[in-house]
């Protein structure tokens, strides 16, 4: 499979204060990608959660790349526009956009008031749309680009208790697949990526999604995303990809290294949450 050198490319990763977003930023930095990290947290001194956009930027620099930290609320259109403009003003280009910022709530419709529904849609589907809208002209300027959505395949079975959240995430995938068709002749790829198994994050622990024996580390998504954006855009676009099946197709055989607990066999919990057929 043909791959491309990422050294000198520029990426924006939303929701990169901690967890998967921060891990993705560091992984791309190790490939020579300069990264704009965005998020809402700028001071964690009074918080139980460690992580700020500045700490993530420092981690990018420690990995060998340049970094820009910008506070962002993806619900705010001007904030999204500012992130893109500052990135391009700093490095003169934009090559990769990863729409990782997300809001999560998994409750029945009766327990999800319209205000909460609006929040989920605004952060997930709308935020990804707005960021893609403002990034697109700069990707076109390069005649090269990747846009990624952190969202699952659309093909799902019944998923009770996830109506609002599921719709907002699947909406991201629909944007990816629709936009891919719009730019497929412009050397710009648009894809969605999603874990087959639960990833060890704050959300996984907060919602009690299994136990540590059922989880993998964010490293599997880092390897997946690095593989995707190293692929020539014209060779991979319009797909909704699950990490393990995708990496197996790319020749990865050792998945034990991604397990939180050595020797465990994590089930396809994350895909099952959305009723995704993984056979």
Structural write-up:
The chain has 279 residues and is α/β, with parallel strands linked by helices. It has a single domain, classed as NAD(P)-binding Rossmann-like Domain (Rossmann fold). It has nine helices and nine strands. The chain has a seven-stranded parallel beta sheet, sandwiched between helices. Strand 1, helix 1 and strand 2 form a beta-alpha-beta unit. Helix 1 packs parallel to helix 2 (53-62). The chain is globular. The two termini are 24 Å apart. 48% of the residues are buried.
Please outline the helices and strands:
Blueprint: E1 10-13, H1 19-29, E2 34-39, H2 53-62, E3 67-71, H3 77-91, E4 96-99, H4 114-142, E5 145-150, H5 163-183, E6 188-194, E7 198-199, H6 202-206, E8 215-216, H7 219-229, E9 240-242, H8 243-249, H9 269-273
Parallel strand pairs: 1-2, 1-4, 2-3, 4-5, 5-6, 6-9, 7-8
Helix pairs in contact: 1-2, 1-7, 3-4, 4-5, 7-8
Would you identify the regions where 5 or more consecutive residues have pLDDT less than 50? none
CATH class: Alpha Beta
Main β-sheet: number of strands, strand sense, barrel status?
Answer: 7 strands, parallel
SSE topology string:
EHEHEHEHEHEEHEHEHH
Measured distance between first and last alpha carbons: 24 Å
Count the domains: 1
Mean pLDDT over all positions: 94
């Amino acid at each position: 499979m043909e791959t491309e050198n990422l050294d000198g490319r520029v990426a924006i990763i939303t929701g990169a204060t901690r967890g998967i977003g921060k891990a993705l930023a560091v992984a791309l930095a190790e490939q020579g990608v300069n990264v704009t990290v965005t998020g809402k947290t700028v001071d964690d001194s009074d918080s139980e959660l460690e992580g700020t956009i500045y700490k993530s930027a420092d981690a990018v620099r420690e990995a060998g790349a340049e970094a820009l930290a910008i506070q962002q609320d993806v619900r705010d259109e001007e904030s999204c526009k500012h992130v893109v403009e500052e990135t391009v003003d700093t490095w003169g280009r934009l090559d990769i956009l990863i729409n990782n910022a997300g809001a999560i709530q998994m409750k029945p419709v009766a327990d999800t008031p319209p205000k909460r529904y609006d929040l989920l849609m605004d952060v997930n589907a709308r935020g990804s749309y707005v960021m893609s809208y403002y990034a697109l002209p700069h990707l076109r300027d390069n005649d090269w680009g990747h846009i990624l959505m952190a969202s699952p395949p659309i093909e799902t079975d019944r998923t009770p208790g996830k109506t609002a959240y599921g719709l907002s995430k699947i909406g991201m995938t629909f944007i990816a697949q629709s936009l891919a068709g719009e730019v497929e002749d412009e050397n710009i790829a648009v894809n969605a990526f999603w874990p087959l198994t639960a990833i060890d994050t704050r959300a996984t622990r907060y919602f009690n999604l299994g136990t540590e024996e059922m989880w993998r580390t964010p490293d599997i998504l880092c390897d997946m995303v690095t593989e995707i954006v190293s692929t020539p855009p014209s060779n991979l676009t319009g797909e909704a990809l699950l990490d393990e099946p995708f990496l197996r197709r790319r020749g990865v055989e050792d998945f034990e290294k991604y397990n939180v607990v050595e020797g465990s066999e994590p089930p396809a919990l994350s895909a099952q949450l959305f009723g995704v057929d993984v056979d």
